[in-house]
Write a structure and sequence with these properties.
It comes from Dentiscutata heterogama. There is one protein chain. The protein has 317 residues and is mostly helical. 42% of the residues lie in helices and 6% in strands. The strands form three sheets. The chain has a two-stranded parallel sheet with strand order 1-2. The longest helix has 21 residues. The radius of gyration is 22 Å and the shape is globular. The model has no long low-confidence stretch (mean pLDDT 92).
């Protein structure tokens, strides 16, 4: 993620705060490709202290939006997006009718690559407002991808059904992303998370503690139930046919095993494959031959021709 963050960072030295502003308008504290800068929900449980990282925004655009009836949070969000120029522009799309097309807006919105993206509906469309969860990485097999997508969808369902509160200060979200980027963070890292996702606290600092991914997903006994256990509780309350319930259970079982470290993450599996390759010289150089053998192995796993219990246990892809 942080490699992409650097590759997509088009800020000048002035915008990065390395030189005084002369030709540019803003000092921008985040790359174009980065974690989210703030919350924009109107949820009553969203405290102002959670948006604890100052984000710059275009005050002229903000005023125009406010004057035209846009609410404050959304106006701040849009005026934040427009502190950047378009990353690229297609010549044949320069002239648009903004009354019937949102292409100019989408050119800005879609080139702010953040971990979560708000997607307004296109004009004259029955598509509703959407939130795109963007930080999840593609997995090796269809089974893994299906498991993570299913887990994510069910997570949104329990948030809505039980009115769960996952808010944390953005600074702690940033810290979690830094920890997650470290090697073997699943087994060695501790991440900030809410002590109680069912309740609200008066103070902010007392609401959170550091947990392992295993504790967050699978629970830590009586203190924190674990996300999967809450999802299972939700499924028990639903009228689901036996076959669907079986498949959902398999996906959740896999997520629980991955979170506990019983089976490897894709990153660990790939790293181990490269390090154990007979032509690897422990010099951080992945040769064409190693890369080819890795891709062939991945293809074999995808097709079910190669067993990888350290990655998938006994689950069928």
């Amino acid at each position: 993620w942080f490699v992409l963050k650097i590759c997509g960072d088009d800020r000048t030295k002035e915008e990065r705060g390395l030189e005084p502003l002369k030709n540019d308008r803003f000092v921008i504290n985040r790359s174009r490709w980065d974690t989210i800068a703030y919350y924009i929900s109107a949820d009553k449980t969203l405290k102002s202290e959670y948006n604890d990282q100052d984000s710059v925004y275009d005050r002229n655009i903000y005023k125009k939006l406010i004057d035209n009836g846009v609410d404050e949070l959304l106006a701040r969000h849009i005026s934040y997006l427009f502190i950047r120029d378009p990353f690229f522009v297609f010549e044949d799309l320069l002239h648009q009718d903004d009354e019937s097309s949102s292409n100019h807006f989408e050119n800005i919105n879609s080139t702010n690559w953040q971990t979560v993206r708000l997607k307004p509906p296109p004009p004259d469309s029955n598509i509703g407002w959407r939130v795109e969860f963007r930080c999840m990485e593609v997995q090796i097999s269809d089974f893994e991808n299906a498991a993570f997508v299913t887990f994510m969808i069910l997570l949104t369902r329990i948030i809505l059904s039980y009115d769960l509160n996952f808010y944390m200060p953005i600074s702690k979200v940033d810290e979690n992303m830094t920890i997650a980027y470290r090697r073997d963070a699943l087994n060695t890292g501790n991440f900030w998370f809410r002590k109680n996702i069912f309740a609200n606290y008066d103070g902010v600092e007392d609401e959170f503690e550091q947990m392992t991914i295993n504790e967050i997903v699978n629970g830590n006994g009586n203190e924190f139930p674990g996300l999967i256990n809450v999802i299972f509780q939700y499924l028990e309350s639903m009228n689901i046919d036996i076959e669907t319930r079986y498949h959902l259970g398999k996906y959740l079982e896999f997520i629980g095993m991955r979170a506990s470290g019983k089976i490897q993450t894709a990153a660990t599996w790939i790293r181990n494959f490269v390090r154990s390759h007979p032509n690897y010289n422990y010099d951080s150089i992945v040769s064409q031959e190693i890369n080819y053998d890795l891709i062939k192995m991945v293809e074999g796993i995808q097709k079910g021709q190669v067993k990888a219990p350290e990655l998938l246990s006994e689950f069928k892809v």
